[in-house]
Amino acid sequence: MCPSPPWFHHPERRLLAGFLGLLWSVLAGGCATTTAPVAPDIIEEVSAAPETEVPEYIPVVRYGRYTLVELAPTAAQRDLLLQTIDVSMPGDARATVGDGLRHVLKRSGYDLCQAAHAVVALYALPLPAAHLHLGPMTLRDALLTLAGPAWELHADDRARQICFERPGDSMTTDNVAAPPATETVQTFPLAPAASGGQP
């Protein structure tokens, strides 16, 4: 039971005691006890302060009053297949896909490879009228557009050649060398030996 305040037992102070008792109950909050806050079950990890990255130094040169130009190669200069082209094919009615590919590759730095028999069939296809003008687009997209979705593009950056192959052609018999010839030796199963002696 909660203890009463000491002024509550004097009769002359009942009015004041009533007011102070009300104030006491409000301030004391009864006999309620306060509990400590519950510690969380999960302890959050304190992350380290992020390291500030030092910006890469790119040299620039001033051209004119307000123009600064970076002294670094562009992405299309690093990867030639990213160069932007806008090409109109010659209006020959007998143009083939191979002619279109060669025309797109002019002055690109790449040549067209002539390796497999299946690619020769691609090069001989007639050039569609929709492909008489290509661009602006990247060189890679123009080559893939001309070849169509049935062909995969492979760039040999060392020889600077563009080759096409059908998916799964690397496993076909056209591209796999024949295994070396081996002599076949006929073997006969051995008869089981009789137990206990010589035959």
List the helices and strands and how they pair.
Layout: H1 14-28, E1 60-63, E2 67-70, H2 75-78, E3 84-88, H3 97-105, E4 111-112, H4 117-123, E5 133-138, H5 139-147, E6 152-156, E7 161-165
Parallel strand pairs: 4-7
Antiparallel strand pairs: 1-2, 3-5, 6-7
Helix pairs in contact: 3-5
Question: Can you give a write-up of this model?
Answer:
The chain is 22% helix and 16% strand. By secondary structure, it is α+β, with helices and mostly antiparallel strands. Among the domains are: 1-30, no CATH class; 75-171. The protein has a three-stranded mixed sheet with strand order 4-7-6, with helices on one face. The longest helix is centred in the first third of the chain and has 15 residues, at 14-28. The chain is elongated, with a radius of gyration of 44 Å. 9% of the residues are buried.
Question: Which labels suit this protein?
Answer:
199 residues; alpha+beta; three-stranded mixed sheet; two-stranded antiparallel sheet; 7 strands; elongated
Largest sheet: 3 strands, mixed
Order of helices and strands: HEEHEHEHEHEE
Chain-averaged pLDDT: 76
Low-pLDDT ranges: 171-191
**Helix and strand composition category:** alpha+beta
Radius of gyration from CA coordinates: 44 Å
The tally of strands reads 7
Which of globular, elongated, flat, extended, rod-shaped describes the shape? elongated
Q: What's the arrangement of strands in the largest beta sheet?
A: 4-7-6
* Amount of helix: 10-25%
Q: How large is the share of residues in beta strands?
A: 15-25%
How many angstroms separate the termini? 114 Å
**Number of helices, counting only DSSP H or I runs of 4 residues or more:** 5
